[in-house]
Amino acid sequence: xxxxxxxxxxxxxxxxxKYYLVSQENFEEYLKAIGLSMAKRAVAISxxxxxxxxxxxxxxxxxxxxxxxxxxxTFRLGVQMKRVAADGRHVTDVFDxxxxxxxxxxxxxxxxxxxxxxxxxxxxxxxxxxxxxxGDVTCVRHFRRE
Length: 146
Description:
Blueprint: H1 2-15, E1 17-25, H2 27-33, H3 38-46, E2 50-56, E3 59-65, E4 71-75, E5 81-84, E6 90-99, E7 103-111, E8 115-124, E9 127-134, E10 137-145
Antiparallel strand pairs: 1-2, 1-10, 2-3, 3-4, 5-6, 6-7, 7-8, 8-9, 9-10
Helix pairs in contact: 2-3
């Protein structure tokens, strides 16, 4: 149990920090698949978001800057929360940890009439990889710690 707690604490300490987007693959195809207009896709693709992740006890806070509308949200693992996504969609999120040989933060995002995206957040040193899957479309966004 102690190894599990130490591993989880080390993961959470690794998540905390400020990150910026360095590259992305297939992001426009994902935005098209979720129904964003060409104009909204063009804006989203041109932005370089900065993300500040903080954890206080069991409360996680994410601050997004450098996008058309700054966004802050707070969540607790395993607890459903509602928010407005940066693209304007009203979504319901549930975040949880997936624990195997490496811990990953898993985000299930739902909206509209049963639309669902699965987002896997993988942290490795100063690098954060976000893999988003919606239907048969997958995009990957790479962030680096500031």
